[in-house]
Amino acid sequence: MAFKEISPEEIKDNPFKLIGKDWMLITAEYAGKVNMMTASWGGIGVMWNKPVAYIAVRPQRFTKTLIDATDTVSLCFFNEKYRKELAYAGKASGKNEDKVAHCGFTVDHSNKTPYFDEARLVLIGKKAFAQNYKQESFIDPSIMDCYEKKDFHTLYILEIEKVLVKE
Asked: How many domains does the chain have?
């Protein structure tokens, strides 16, 4: 099945289910290396009068190295039949293996941004903002339960440049 491009306003999915329950693959490429990581934290909305997605990536993730080295990222969303692959992509490190090959995914590109043909929805985003979380910025102290190792995320805000959906 081919993809068609739609506007961000035409996305029909509930973002709480899409990200929090269905999960996404954050995908980037640098120096010919494509890697992805599974994420269930993030969001979609409007910032600076632009459609955006935001993602949070921990410093030890290999995908972060690629995100930091490039200008664009894709967020890929899949049907439930790919749950096993998404679970694997969230546990294994692309530093040590080719997770794309292990999952059997087919890489395609929108300009220079990689995404997966097996996805049902793809957001192509251009990095607009990045900031490391700092402990003193958290108002709710219970959130520190998510950071036993003090490995605070980097927040990235991506301007959504393209939305692709399966026809």
From this structure: 1
